[in-house]
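Field reference: "sequence" (input) and "structure" (output). Example, Type 2 DNA topoisomerase 6 subunit B:
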Amino acid sequence: MAQPQLKRIARKEKLGRAGKKAAPKPVVRLTAHDLAARQREISVSEFFTKNRHLLGFDSPAKALLTTVKEAVDNALDACEEAGILPDLLIEIGEISETRYRVAVQDNGPGIVKAQIPKIFGQLLYGSKFHTLRQARGQQGIGISAAGMYGQLTTGKPIRIISKTGPTKPAHEFEIQIDTKRNQPVPVSDRELGDWHVVDPTTGEKSTVEHGTKVELEIEATYKKGRHSVDGYVEQTAIANPHAKVSYVAPDGERHEYARVAGELPKAPLEIKPHPHGIELGILLKMLHETKARNITSFLHAEFSRVSGPVAEEIVKSAGLPLSMSPPKAAREQAEALYNAIQAAKLMAPQSNVLSPIGDELLIEGLKKQVTADFYAATSRSPAVYRGNPFLIEAALAYGGGQLPADELVTMLRFANRVPLLYQQSACAITKSVVSNTWKNYGIQQARGALPTAPMVLMVHIASVWVPFTSESKEAVASYPEIVKEIKLALQDVGRKLGLYIRRGLREADAEKKASYIEKYIPHIGIALQEILGIDDKRKEKVCATLKDTLERSRKNE
């Protein structure tokens, strides 16, 4: 009998002994009501708790940097808005290999007691999201997200001390976040009265008149280098020459970055949105929420760069009555108005909403940290993307002996004076640098790579709304308008560098030729002595005349 047939008989006998095969269990199918019962609202805190990598907390090393960055951004913004030259103290203490205490103290205006729990214990709570002007923070997520990360990894609350004036008492809070409700939970709240600090150098005790101190305990790792907290603090000092920054690293080493500008940067003004920067849905929402009585006054009151006559032209072009009430506008009418706005020729947004660093301070900031032979900087005129004004600045430091000549240039990227240390390859700034033709300026560059030169290259974008590629704010999106302006700024400083390099090559070539002449002057004197039969004294005089002529030609060059 064949082997397969024997196997089938054996299986039948086995089934006969075991009885019939058990019937499969019926599949339980959920009803629409069952599915509906599972639905519930997700708070923003819950979302970012599970997706903290979106905020820059995706690794212990980045978590330390992000925590410091968010606290420093808040401190600098607060000081500048209050008209105070910033004086910052950043301290990082090692508790263990994987746990650190971060403290950032400023001399800003302080925070009103009632606002402290919301600012530090509630995500998406802030004063800058609805305003159009240049600022470091925008979304009201940063420092509260850092507190949430500390709470998740160490269980410790965020600690805040704040004082609003010399005669006001200081208040100390310890705050946690209820992630399900996105609400602050004060763990402790006490009045300190006077707030004293001790100078680590002199040991003298002094009273803090106003300011804020934020302290967190987080799970993190500390590494030295350009992409660490050390590099961030150094670059922050470059882009903020008006700030004095003291930094105490985990190893106890203290770094002092002196203030090199005695004045605050020009304060940016708030503007209304530009019509060319809105979308149809936003326009429809604005129409239904405005208090304007008619369409013309709506356009003039709610947008920048729209005068009364221009508003009338837009409304007529849209085929709408001038007296129509905005809240009564239907979707079709809003779309007609939107199309008329996009077709209208309007002035670009005002530039007084921006606060650039400026050519002089760009160079001073670089000189503070980089020793070089040549410095150059440029600030472009304001441009617009999606109705948002922005401005590009670029600066470079070249040569000097301290920078490696055979390595890629050191890139420093900034957005609203904040260093961008990660996602370099995904950033519009890097892509613009790579696509620029640096060989035109005497710099070596491989195809598709950064140029190779002893150079530090700095690019800064100032905007009322920087288009970051993610919530962690580490790279700038490649809008065509932004890329174009970055390239123009790079070409400007590149031309200045090219002139310097070519001048140096000419001088080196002239010096080489002059050295040849100087080398053979004694031989010329001997030859003349033999041909003309002059004495040694006359020969020496001829050589001296030739050397003097050579020196004068060098000076004239």
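The mean pLDDT is 83.
The two ends are 110 Å apart (CA to CA).
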